[in-house]
Every structure is written in structure tokens, then in C-alpha cells.
Amino acid sequence: MYLGESHRRTARHTLTDLSPTADDLYITDVPGKGKGIIALRYFQRGETVLAEPPLFTQGLVRSAASVRAALAQCPPEAQHAFWELHNCHPARGSALGTFETNVLPCGANDAHGRVAPRGGVFATAARLNHGCAPNVNNAWDAARGVLVLRALRDIAAGEELTLGYGALLARREDRRAELRAKFGFECACEVCVLEGKARAASDARRECLAALYGAHLQGAYGDPFDGVGEAALALRLLREEGLPVYESSFCYSGFHCCAAVSDYVSAKAWAVKAFEASRAAFGEEHASYWKGLVANPNSYADAGSLGRRTLAGPDSPLWSVLGF
Ligand SMILES: [Zn+2]
């Protein structure tokens, strides 16, 4: 967790003077960020990096008293682990401030505003620092009662693991302002340290992605060809910005448009990509929605609802020819 000072992050760490935690991870001091988690080995995209039960959880309505009461029920080592964590909200008191600094959702927070009914604090996952191009994603496994961190992309041994704390589809100044207000630090991740033309290009890509994301969540893309083209454009911008966590949402748009016009070859290609992206970020069970649609895209509820047309899949050369 960040301590508030600004420092350019180091991309690699030597594997000496580290203290062990889970088998393949180390918690160590990261310059300018307090503690952080370093991968001790290569993780493949989609691989589980950590599965961890909470120290304790709280509902959405919570107070210093409710946090202290829950903490009192925990074994001494869990209480010790909690009090070791950073508190960036000292005005809210030590217990509630520490909880709110480190809480992660035990359920699904989604793009439609639904909020997980409970939040928990995790001894190891709480050490994850923020990155504006995060390399892990968190998902709650209700059956096992654990938070699962998955690699969003291939991660090299020695890389720091990072999670997105705030809105990522925003310009640098807006991302930094949100992180400053909520967590009291100045983000100095590899995206935020870009300058000049590189920063302007990154800001432009994220602004474009934010507009596309908002429109596609509501299905607001007039013609199916525009919808598929925008989805292909979004995938390119996500690749350039290092934001694979949004891929599956845009693949849904591409799939919907192709299935609606009965182009089941292209629809299947979008469904395969959606399945792979969803499995990498959220796990096999979450991705199972796509399995049936990969096999039978014409079983989709809106299949064939518009006039028959031929569009294109996500990796079609058409998109680069057209400049998407
Ligand atoms: Zn940043």
C-alpha cells in the first residue's frame, strides 16, 4: 500500500533481502510505496496468483464499532496482521480507517453500478499496490470464500503485482485526482510517468475508451457494423494501454452485433475471444457463459434479430485496413 510520497516505480527487483509470504510471492518494501508484492516466478495470463480468505468482512453499513467487534472475534495472528496494514484515513480512526484503506469486494462490483454486499480485508492482497495498467485482477470466489487474484497478462519473475484501485478509463490528471482523494498518494506508475506526446496519446486513448465503454454498456452503437468496428478499435486501444480487464465487455458487443445479423462465423470468433478474456480475468466459472455461445452462437437470444449481413471477427485484417 502506498505511503503517500511520489516515486518512480522500479520494474524489477532483486530477489535478495525479501521476506517470504505465499509460495511464489514476496512482500517487500517498494521504493516510494511502502510494502508491495513481487512475483518470484513467471505467471501465465489467467493463472491464479493468490487465493486468500479474508481476515474478516463487513457489510456496506459499517462503523468503527462494527470493525472493532469483528476484529475482536479474530485469532491473535489475524488481529496482528490487520494492525500491520496502512491507514490512509487516520481521521476515521485506526480501526475503520485501516479497514477502508485496505477493503476489497467480497462479491461483484460491476459496471452497471451493482456493489458487492460485503467487503473484506486480506493480509497479503492488502499489500498490492495500485497501477494504472494493472497486471492482476481480483475476483471473489463465493463457493470457497476466498479472494482470487489472477494474472491479467503474462507476468515475469521479479515484476511487482499491481491492481487497479480507481477508474482506469480516465486521463492521467483525473486518475491521479481520484487516487489522491481516496488513498492520499500521487500515482507514479509507468503510465503516469509518461510525458509529452506519449502522455497525450495515452490520455486520448483512455478518453476514447471511456466514451466507447459507456456507449457499449448501453448497446448505444447505431449500426451493427459500427458496433463491431468500435469493439475492434477498443481492443486495439486496450492492447496499447495495457488494460486487458475490459476486453470481455467489448467482445460482448462484437458478438452481439455479429449474432444479430446471423454472421455466426464472426460471432463465434468474438465469443472465443470473450471466453479467453473472461476466463483470464474472472475464472473458468464466470467464463462458462461463453462456452455454449462458442459452440452455438445461434442460440443467443438476439441471434438473427436484424437483417442478414457479413461483418468481421476481432482479428480480421479488415480493421487495420480501415484504420480501426
Ligand atoms: Zn498511474
TrEMBL record:
CDD domains: SET_SMYD (cd20071)
Superkingdom of source: Eukaryota
Domain SET: 23-166
PANTHER family reported for this sequence: SET DOMAIN-CONTAINING PROTEIN 5
Protein name in the entry: SET domain-containing protein
